[in-house]
Give the backbone structure.
Amino acid sequence: MAKRTQSVAGVILERADSIVGMEIVDEMKKSFIEYSMSVITARALPDVRDGLKPVHRRILYAMYKMGLLPGSKFTKSAKVVGEVLGKYHPHGDISVYDAMVNMAQIFSYRHPLVLGQGNFGSPDGDGAAAMRYTEAKMSKTSELMLRDIEKQTVEFVPNYDGSEREPKVLPAGVPALLLNGTLGIAVGMACDIPPHNAGEVIDATIHVLENPNASTEDLLEFVKGPDFPLGGIAYNKDDIAKAYATGRGPVTVRGEVTIENSKTGKAEIIITSIPFRVNRAEMIIKIADLVNDKKVKGIKDIRDESTDETRIVIEVRSGFIPDKILNYIYKHTDLQKNFNYNMTALVHGVPQTLSLRDMLHHFVQHRYEVVRKRTEFDLTRARERAHILEGLKNALDHIDAIIKLIRASKDGDEAKTNLMIKFKFSELQAVAILEMRLQRLAGLERKKIEDELSEKMKLIKHLEGLLESKTKMKNLIKDELLSLREQIADERRTKIHKKPLGIMTDEDLVPESETVCVMTADGYIKRTDPSEYKAQKRGGVGVGDLDTKEDDVIAHTIIGSTHSDIIFFTDRGRAYSVKMYDIPEGKKSTKGKTIQSILPLMASERITSMLEIPKDVKGLEGLSLMLITANGTIKRTDMSHVTSVRKSGTTVIDLDARDSLLAAHIVADTHEVLMVTSEAQSIRFPVTEVRVMGRAAGGVKGMNLKGDHVVSAVCINKENKKAKLLVISAHGYGKMTELNEYKVQGRGGSGVGTLNVTDKTGKVVGAAIVATDANELIAMSSKGQVVRTGLKDIPTLGRTTQGVRIMKLREGDSVASIALM
């Protein structure tokens, strides 16, 4: 091709007359593909045989060549990094040091490949100290990875400048790809393989050895799932099985958490492990942000008490449910996250997504290849040594003639040639004879040669047998794996839960149990464990409950399940719904929270009745809701108007401005209603006397009051022949009366007397139906005193008697409400 010359600043330049054109798109495609393949095969993805990327392999090989075995002294990390950079990996000291640090971190590698001395970082995201400050050497596991590398077991290739040779893959006595897993991001593909328990993986490898056609499902009998360095919990046997069968799929992982009570009795959430690759400090900051942003309530304090082991303490405020707080933390922080399996690795230089069975199969084939090459190497060396020993043995048999021949030779080369010609020795034998020391002529030395030769012949026979029999080689690999298992296997750290997490609701996290809910006239509400109230004999003073203000009194008490819906009825005929577990829990002496903090009440509304709706609403079929007002009005409506009540409230009865809603009951057509007034008048009539009305209807007259007002309205189940009516007066007197003393009549009448009201007893404040004497009564006074007593201690008396003292009240106090357990 013709060229033109041009002088520029005295320098003669030459350039072609023509330029070869190329499409930029084609050039970009070609260059990018070359770059992508380089990243995929030489940087980001591990080899399926030894589980290592090139940088990790080069670090371990450099340390091996430097003699940094587990039993040697530690060496400065900077020296190791320099060795790797200068001979094998010219990509920058930071990349090499970071890779070495990662292999030494006990929270990153399940079985660390490097033993580090100094600061190598922490789970809180703290970086390692500079390489000039830290020291390192190989671990026991990495020594097993390089065992037999000097026996021509693996292929060696020239390094980047051709000055050294490096292994293309390590002999890998253990399946390191599964032991420690790996994370790699290439171009257009990535890999993310979790670490595993060495004992389980080796057991599965042995199973593949003995059963080459074993399926992944078979291997999951050995490999239970991932085993992360810092523990945690992996969920769902089906997800785990799918990930190992296909090489891809998410597996949910959680940190381990317990809920305990502190010495002060407050609940604490204790986090004892975190998911893999989660930054502990950042997770704590995220929880704190949720608290500061008021997205999660009830957390009083967060303390990181971690040392070598994780311990994060979250102190829960009184009245809040720890399980609900924990559930929110799971949803909005990395305390719960998915580990997305992507088991991609290089198989003969080609990236493939592998199942668990595929990985172990390729490793087993690699072990067969390594053991075969090692056996061939050992056999060659054994034959060479046996050949020399045979020559020495023969030489000793003709030692005098050989000495004479050597003395007659003018130099060593002539002596070697004469030995080969006259005695038929090989060149190796002749050299060995010439180098033999005179002490070998002794009788014992001759015996040593004969013994060594015998041993070598046995070894040769053994090695030849290995190469001829795949069964023998399989058994050898199995024995070696079992030996390695004893050296590196330990207990599983990550727990495996076979069942899926599912969608966890707040209700799933709250234990179902009986609880007592109380509310004051001023609207302070709480719920308490019934065991807080100690059972007493009738007539006792009781124990304190709910620290009320001087002018506040206990207004309502209800006992029900923590999973029930509580319907609040107001004096204005509206109903509001809330879950029982959403009502703050407290001790018997705590004040509680305001009802306005739970329900959106109107300014003029006050709660007059509370009703428990059981969790299983199907059990309400055929039932209806009965509402009774203080002025004696009664209404029956369909239960759907209650079960569909929203927290924002809905109207359930149309009231006169001078009337107020007093009580609500769930009734069946076979039930009867018994209304009791403050002046101890009572009326009993069938529920069917009141027809079912619409949600906003006003109701009908239930009782002729004549200036009196209703204080209680109870339901009677006629099938319970042993039921009785319990009444209690303001001054703590009460009794039980047989129901047959109350005649059944039509609604709208004046009723009959139910207690002899005097100045001593005070007016009636409450009544209840007693189904069995095994029940207990909880009575609360207006000043917060509570008595819990068995009904068997309360006598059954006539309808017109005044009863006995049930609760001894302090001066100025009076009974406010009652409830049955």
Summary: Residues 250 and 733 are 66 Å apart (CA to CA). The first strand starts at residue 3 and ends at 8. Residues 256-334 form a domain with the Gyrase A; domain 2 fold (CATH 3.30.1360.40).
